[in-house]
Design a protein that fits this description.
This protein is an alpha/beta fold and 298 residues long. The protein has 3 domains: 9-81, Winged helix-like DNA-binding domain superfamily/Winged helix DNA-binding domain (Arc Repressor Mutant, subunit A); 94-156 and 271-297, Periplasmic binding protein-like II (D-Maltodextrin-Binding Protein, domain 2, 3-Layer(aba) Sandwich), CATH 3.40.190; 166-265, 3-Layer(aba) Sandwich (D-Maltodextrin-Binding Protein, domain 2), CATH 3.40.190.10. Helix content is 38%, strand content 21%. It has helices spanning 9-18, 21-28, 32-46, 62-87, 102-119, 172-178, 228-236, 250-255, 284-297, and strands at residues 51-53, 58-60, 94-100, 123-129, 143-147, 156-159, 166-170, 193-195, 206-210, 213-217, 223-225, 242-245, 259-261, 272-276. Strands 4-3-5-14-6 form a 5-stranded mixed sheet, with helices on one face. The protein has a 3-stranded antiparallel sheet with strand order 12-7-13. The protein is elongated and about 70 Å long.
């Protein structure tokens, strides 16, 4: 193995994950020219083309895909080894990259970000709001926040909130116009504001419970949105029924702008967890965030 075997590896991984030389440069803190040069030298050194480049797109070749699949795991393990080595110093430094749901994540992080910045001034907090499933290792996130049922079993997880309650909601104007559904099965005759997962494209059914048994209702309606904040906006405008976590609608329910229906049929969900690869909990920057979140949220 020559001394320059690992030259360009981090640049290669960043471009592969982001499909962009400029985005990879921003992540690595270097210029796009430097990233392009590092990848080109890597291709020349190994006599293999790793990317197909056009003016609009950067994509891995078959050889590049095979190399990426192996290097992303190996480099992650190497990075974790050095993180563990430095963890003994106990001082949070570096960049903490977190992924969390858009609306719930924004509500959760709002009271934490300033306190964390005060406690850990040498850490850059890099937050990505995304409702879909996210590959932490592949996208180089330190941790994610999701509902418990969405956390992969191989991840370590720490509960941040109690089980979350949900509601089917509508504006008084909508209910006056269309009436109140008495049982979940009547939703098929109503206009429902449906949510679509951005990554998978799936339209999740609405979950209910009766006599201790959970069941789903596939709702209808001609409005589909991939953002729960916009769903709430449409519900306030009287455009249909919404199925939302109560955390997102405290003010609207208190003012009467949105009213609950079918309350006795809506079960709670598991609550929010922070999850991460087992090894990364050794990082002082992540440990400090978890400690703060547990202190503030509980």
């Amino acid at each position: 193995m020559s001394d320059n075997t690992f030259d360009g590896v981090h640049a290669f991984l960043a471009v592969a994950e982001l499909s962009s030389f400029s985005a990879a440069a921003a992540r690595l803190g270097i210029t796009p020219t430097a990233v392009s040069k590092a990848v080109k030298l890597m291709e020349q050194r190994h006599a293999t083309i790793l990317f197909q480049r056009t003016t609009r797109q950067v994509a891995l070749t078959e050889a590049g895909q095979a190399l990426y699949a192996q290097l992303r795991v190996a480099v992650g393990q190497i990075d974790d080894a050095f993180l563990a080595l430095h963890a003994a110093a106990g001082r949070p430094t570096g960049t903490l990259r977190l992924t969390m749901p858009r609306a719930l994540g924004a509500l959760l992080i709002a009271p934490l970000a300033q306190r964390y910045a005060e406690r850990c001034p040498e850490v850059t907090l890099d937050i990505s709001l995304d409702d879909g499933a996210v590959d932490l290792i592949g996208n180089r996130f330190d941790a994610g926040i999701r509902l418990g049922e969405a956390v992969a079993p191989e991840m370590a997880a720490v509960r941040l909130t109690p089980p979350l309650t949900w509601s089917v909601l509508a504006s008084p104007a909508y209910l006056a116009r269309m009436g109140r559904p008495a049982v979940p099965e009547e939703l098929t005759a109503h206009q429902s504001l449906r949510y679509r997962f951005l990554s998978s494209g799936a339209l999740p059914p609405w979950r209910f419970a009766r006599d201790g048994q959970d069941f789903d209702v596939v709702t209808g309606g001609n409005i589909i949105v991939n953002d729960t904040t916009l769903i709430k906006t449409f519900a306030l405008a009287g455009m249909g029924l919404a199925y939302l976590p109560d955390m997102e609608t405290v003010a609207e329910r208190a003012s009467g702008a949105l009213e609950r229906v079918l309350a006795s049929f809506v079960p709670p969900t598991s609550g929010l967890f922070i999850y991460f690869p087992v090894r990364t909990q050794l990082q002082p920057k992540l440990r400090a965030f978890i400690d703060l979140a547990l202190q503030e949220l509980r």
